[in-house]
Amino acid sequence: MGSYERLGSTVSLPVLEELIAMEQQLREDYRTMLGSLRTSMRRHFDQRYHRASEALLATQVGNRSANSVFSEAILYVLDENPLATVHLHPAVQSLLPDLCDDGIELIINGERYGKRWKHQVRNAQQALKRAGLISFDGTQWSKIK
């Protein structure tokens, strides 16, 4: 018998099968434990992230209305060049991603009217147009200088 073999002892097949079953159960328990820990940690992280996002958004918006925030974004975007609505909306969304959530639909009496944030942007566009700050030529929105 070699020196390495002498470190162990002879094991019967029933004992070996029992040890294998115990090892398999431990592996399963370990995966379950990690899964529950991940779920718990993920939930904890998601809660903290949500609170932080709300605080950052509240700081960004301050005491202004959503219409005011969207209006400022529109004016900023139109500083560069006139834009069609199809290009204006993504530009505003890139500036205000937290306010422009594609997952929130505007639903009235069970009927879907598109993304809520796009309606808010259109309302801001119309308010700016009425105030004489932007114009629409039928194709593009422009900032009146």
Account of the protein in words:
- With 145 residues, this protein is mostly helical.
- The N and C termini lie far apart (96 Å).
- Helix content is 61%, strand content 10%.
- Helix 2 crosses helix 3.
- The mean pLDDT is 83.
- The longest helix has 49 residues.
Essential attributes:
two-stranded antiparallel ribbon; 145 residues; mainly alpha; 4 helices
Q: Using the CA coordinates, give the radius of gyration.
A: 30 Å
Uncertain stretches: none
Shape verdict? rod-shaped
Strand order, sheet with most strands: 1-2
Largest sheet: 2 strands, antiparallel
State the distance separating the first and last CA atoms: 96 Å
| Number of contiguous helices | 4
Compute the number of strand runs.
4
Provide the β-strand percentage band: 5-15%
Overall residue-averaged pLDDT value: 83
Order of helices and strands: HHHEEHEE
Structural class: mainly alpha
Helix content: 55-70%
How would the blueprint of this fold be written?
Elements: H1 13-61, H2 66-78, H3 85-95, E1 105-108, E2 111-115, H4 116-130, E3 134-136, E4 141-143
Antiparallel strand pairs: 1-2, 3-4
Short description:
61% of the residues lie in helices and 10% in strands. It is mainly α. Helix 2 (66-78) packs across helix 3 (85-95) and helix 2 crosses helix 4 (116-130).
